[in-house]
Design brief:
Elements lengths: L1 H51 L3 E4 L6 E7 L4 E6 L4 E5 L6 E4 L6 E8 L4 E7 L17 E6 L5 E6 L10 E6 L5 E5 L4 E5 L5 E6 L12 E7 L3 E6 L4 E6 L7 E5 L9 E3 L5 E5 L10 E6 L6 E8 L7 E7 L2 E6 L16 E6 L4
Parallel strand pairs: 17-21
Antiparallel strand pairs: 1-24, 2-3, 3-4, 4-5, 6-7, 7-8, 8-9, 10-11, 11-12, 12-13, 14-15, 15-16, 16-17, 18-19, 19-20, 20-21, 22-23, 23-24
C-alpha cells in the first residue's frame, strides 16, 4: 500500500512538473508575442508619422512670393521669407500661416539659416528692384545679414556686407559650418563672404570664375559638407564648385555628367547626396525640376542619379528638410516681372519624392 502511494505521488509530481513547464512555456510565449506586437506597433507608428507629412503645405497669402524656406526642429515650424513683401512668416505642417517678422528694414528676404544652438534666425536682406519696398537707393546695393531671435522674432543685429567689395550686391544664400561660421553668396559680385562666430564679416574668397554676364545671376545656392568644404552653385550656366575651407583659393569645378541648365537652392542630404533646384527665368526650352546628385570621389565630379519633375508650382527656389523629407518652395517670380499678371495666392511647399 505504501508502494502504491509512492507511485501515485510520483505520478502527481510529474503532472505538476509538466503543468509548471507548460505554464512557464506559455508565459514565455506570451512575453515573446507581446514583445513582437509592441515592435510591430512601434514600427507602424513610425511609418504612420512619416506618412502624416503632407504632400502639399499651402501658403495662403496673396502676393507672398516666397524665396527662402527653413525648418526649425526645436520650434517645429517652417519659416518662409517673402521676396516681394519683405517679411518672414511661419507655418505648421497644416499651413496655418502667421506673420513672424515684419521689419520695415527688410526689402527682399532671400536665403535664411537657423542656428538652433543659439536660437537665432539669420536672414539675407537684398534688393533686385522688384519687391514692394524696392528703392533706387537700395537696388543692387543692399547687402545685409540680419539676425533675429527665433522665439520672438525680435531683431538682434544687422551685419552690413556692402562695404566689403566694390560692386553690385545681391546676397542670396547662406549656410553654417560645423563651428558656427556663416558663409554667404553674392549673385551680383563674384564673392563669398564669411561671418565668424563673433559676427565679424569678411570676404572668404573672390574669384573671376564666379563672374557672369551683366544682368544675370551668379553665385546662388551654397551647402556645407562635413569634410570641411563648401559646395557652391552658379546660376548662370548651372555650374557647381567645391571650395576647401582650409585652402579657399583651391576652387575646383565639380564636373557633372550632364547639364542642370540653371540652379538655385542646394541641400546636402544625410547620405551625402546633393539636392539641386533648377528653375527657368529666361524662357529657355528646359523643364524646371529638382535633381538628386551623387558622387564617388568626394565631389571632384558628380552624376545625376534622379530627377523630380512632378512639380505642382512655378519657379522652384529653395528647399528644406522636415523629418527626413525634402520640401521645395515655389516663388512664381516670372509673375513679378509681368505687368499683366494678377497677384497670386496659390503658394505652397511640395514634398519631393524621388522614384526608386
Amino acid at each position: 500500500m505504501k508502494q502504491f502511494h509512492s507511485k501515485k505521488n510520483l505520478i502527481q509530481l510529474n503532472i505538476i512538473n509538466i503543468m509548471y513547464n507548460n505554464l512557464k512555456l506559455n508565459k514565455m510565449k506570451t512575453i515573446l508575442y507581446l514583445f513582437i506586437s509592441l515592435s510591430i506597433f512601434s514600427c507602424k507608428k513610425d511609418d504612420e508619422q512619416i506618412q502624416e507629412l503632407p504632400n502639399i503645405i499651402p501658403l495662403k497669402e496673396t502676393a507672398l512670393y516666397p524665396e527662402g524656406v527653413v525648418y526649425s526642429n526645436t520650434k517645429q515650424k517652417i519659416f518662409i521669407g517673402s521676396y516681394y513683401k519683405g517679411k518672414v512668416v511661419s507655418t505648421d505642417l497644416q499651413g496655418n500661416l502667421t506673420d513672424f517678422i515684419t521689419d520695415n528694414s527688410l526689402v527682399a528676404v532671400v536665403g535664411m539659416a537657423i542656428n538652433e544652438s543659439n536660437n537665432k534666425l539669420y536672414v539675407c536682406n537684398s534688393d533686385s528692384g522688384i519687391s514692394l519696398k524696392s528703392d533706387v537707393s537700395t537696388t543692387g546695393i543692399l547687402a545685409e545679414v540680419i539676425v533675429y531671435d527665433l522665439t520672438t522674432g525680435d531683431r538682434i543685429k544687422t551685419i552690413d556686407l556692402s562695404g566689403l567689395y566694390a560692386g553690385g550686391h545681391f546676397l542670396n544664400d547662406l549656410v553654417f559650418d560645423a563651428d558656427g561660421n556663416l558663409y554667404i553668396t553674392d549673385s551680383f559680385s563674384p564673392v563669398i563672404y564669411k561671418i565668424d562666430t563673433n559676427d565679424n564679416p569678411s570676404i572668404l574668397i573672390t574669384n573671376p570664375i564666379f563672374e557672369v554676364p551683366q544682368g544675370t545671376f551668379g553665385l546662388n545656392g551654397i551647402a556645407y559638407h562635413p569634410d570641411n568644404f563648401l559646395i557652391v552653385g552658379k546660376s548662370f550656366g548651372g555650374t557647381l564648385y567645391k571650395i576647401p575651407l582650409n585652402d579657399v583659393n583651391n576652387v575646383q569645378e565639380i564636373l557633372l555628367n550632364e547639364s542642370v541648365n540653371s540652379l538655385d537652392g542646394l541641400l546636402l542630404t544625410a547620405d551625402n547626396k546633393l539636392a539641386l533646384v533648377s528653375n527657368n527665368f529666361t524662357g529657355a526650352s528646359f523643364d524646371e525640376k529638382v535633381y538628386l546628385i551623387g558622387t564617388s570621389n568626394n565631389w571632384l565630379s558628380a552624376s545625376i542619379e534622379n530627377e523630380f519633375t512632378n512639380l505642382e508650382g512655378s519657379f522652384p527656389t529653395t528647399m528644406t528638410e522636415i523629418n527626413n523629407s525634402l520640401y521645395v518652395n515655389f516663388g512664381y517670380f516670372t509673375e513679378l516681372i509681368d505687368p499683366n499678371s494678377a497677384p497670386n495666392n496659390n503658394f505652397k511647399l511640395q514634398k519631393v519624392v524621388f522614384s526608386n
